[in-house]
Each structure stands twice: as structure tokens, then as C-alpha cells.
Amino acid sequence: MLDPRYTKLAELLIKHSTNLQSEEHILIEAFDMPSEMLTELIRVVQDVGGHAHVAIRDMRILRALQANGGDAAFETWSEYDLERMKRMDAYLGMRGSHNVSEHSGINPARQKAWGQLYMTPVHMKQRINQTKWCVLRWPTPSMAQLAGMDTDSFEDFYFNVCTLDYGQMAEAANQLVTAMAESDQVHLQGPNETDLTFSIKDIPVRHCCGNNNIPDGEVFTAPVKDSINGVIQYNTPSLYRGHSFENIKLEFKDGQIVSFDADQGAEHLKPIFDTDEGSRYVGEFAIGFNPYIKEAMKDILFDEKIAGSLHLTPGNAYDDACNGNKSEIHWDLVMIQRPEYGGGTISFDGEIIREDGLFVKDSLLGLNPENLIGDACTV
Description:
- It contains 10 helices and 19 strands.
- By secondary structure, it is of the alpha+beta class.
- The protein has 2 domains: about 5-160, 3-Layer(aba) Sandwich (Thermophilic metalloprotease-like), CATH 3.40.1830; about 165-370, no CATH class.
- The strands form 4 sheets. It has an 8-stranded antiparallel sheet with strand order 13-12-9-6-5-17-18-19. The chain has a 5-stranded antiparallel sheet with strand order 7-8-14-15-16, covered by helices on one side.
- Helix 1 (about 5-15) crosses helix 2, helix 4 (about 70-85) packs parallel to helix 5 (about 110-130) and helix 6 (about 140-145) crosses helix 7.
- It is globular, with a radius of gyration of 20 Å.
């Protein structure tokens, strides 16, 4: 018997997140996914009159191809996947993984080549900028282990995220979009020497409320590229390029990362920040507010939405909130400002708008957890 949660999620992804219309084409890229979920997605695509295209991916096979493939292989792979992506109106990436560390140990030079030759043309330039896209994880025992939960409880948590009323969230988030669009100077303060200032003046602001990611819940923009000064120490773990990092600390001068350290994974930071010139500048600043997500689990699609969090992202800026920074990396690093994590404030033009993880400005109170938890998804 089909799990009814599959149907509910499929309806959300096709009708809301990608907003697929009749005669539109969608690519569903499925990584280590159950066939039952894929067939339900195909059914919903066909119900709305769309055309489904499916790419089945296996993470172990992908690792073998990336670890040992040459530039010529990456270029050819990129050419035919790019041609397919150009023909798509929408993209859905559903990413399960039986081993979240599957890509550890790959030579950094091969990772860099993969980013340059495949990810940048197919995804960073074409998919993100030219399709209606949504990316999400699929609950696996590996993810449950990272979250410190048993598999059944984690699946319940995962599907409960969809009980959010994303329509209500979007309405509340519009107030934060307005506040950020009208602001110039941002000041972040927190524990462990975190004291950072930058400008967001004239950079577009966007909300994410069930469109590009599930789970969702953030408003993002980008700092003026050369405006960041100070120190930030992130207090959530991060899994990137197959390596684990803890308590990453970055120091900025005139927008550029001038020093970096970490309690764990410090030896892997330099190759990342030396990827290209843009990897030492920031491409995104975002504020997270999903009320169901409280703790980090080394999965950025969840962690960047944590209630009471923010992320400041070294690397590439999105075209729809662009500060001019271009890079092959886009590394969302998260800081939680709730009291149990040391607290902290976000100020716009000298006014505190969020303190210790809760919004204090009257127009933004609708984004606090008690005002976002609803009974059902709005599709």
C-alpha cells in the first residue's frame, strides 16, 4: 500500500514548489530514492498535464565516476546533461544517500574539475537561473543517524515539515523582505568574538517558502561584495565535500576572507577557499525561521532553515540576489542565535530586529515559531 505521505509530498512538490503547468517538461533527478515515490511524482506530473523525465542516480557510482574521471569525461557528460537541462521548464532534485560521507577522500583537484566542468554549466548557470527548481533530501537511515534519531522518528519529523502552511509563511516573510530591502547596514553579534558588519543596500531580497527547497523557511539577499568587516564564528557542524567541520571561524576585511580556522576540519579549509577568487567572498546572507527545525544535522537543506539561525555563504551569488560574486563553490555556513547556543542579535541600520533567535520588531513577529506552525500544507 502506498504511504499517503508520499502522495502529500508529491502534490506539494509538483503543484506548489515547481508550479508545473500543462505541457511543461520537468526533470526529476533521483539519488538513492524508492521507486514508489518516483512513480507517485510521475503520476502527479501527468495529472497536471506535464511531461516527466527521470534520471536515476546512485551515489556510489557517482563517486567512482567523479573520483577517477578525466576532464574529457566531465566535459562530455556536461554537454549532454546541459542540452537536456535547456529543454526543461522545471527541475526536481530528490537526494537520498545511504552514506553521507560517500564523497570523502576524493582528490580536491578532481572535485574542483567536477565543479568547473559539470556543476557550474549544468546547475549553477542553467538549472538555477533558467528553470523552476526545487531540491530536497530524502529520509534515509544515514540521515537519521546524523540527526541522532531512530529511522521511524526521523521519517515522522521529515514529513511533518510539510505540515507547515507555506502560504502563511510567505505572507509573514514578505514583511522581512520589505525590512531588508529598505535597509543598508547589517550588524551581527554573538558569542565567540562574532561581531560583523556589512551593507545590503540595493541588493535584491527574496523569500524561500516552499519553492526552491523542502523543507523551507528563509529570506535571503547578498552583502555588498566589499563591505564585510569583522569576525563570525559559526556554531553548527557542516559536511562539505565529504569532510566534517566544527566551529568554523572566518575573519573578513573589505569583503574578503583574510583568515580562517576550525575546531575540526581546519586542514581542509584552504583548498576550499583557494578554489577561485570568488570563494573568499560572500555570495549570500540569509535568515532562517522554519519552526520545526531546531538542531543541526549536517544536512544544509535542513540546517540553513533552523529557527533562530542565519547563514553567511562564501562563494557564488544567485542571479536573482546578485552582488557580482562568482565562484564554483556556494557553502552555506550556519550560526544559531537562540539562547542555548549563546544568543545573539541581528540589527538593521542600528535597530535590533531579532534577538536570541526571536524577532522583536512588531512587523516581523509573524515569523516566530508559535505563529508559523499550522495543521496542513498549502499546495
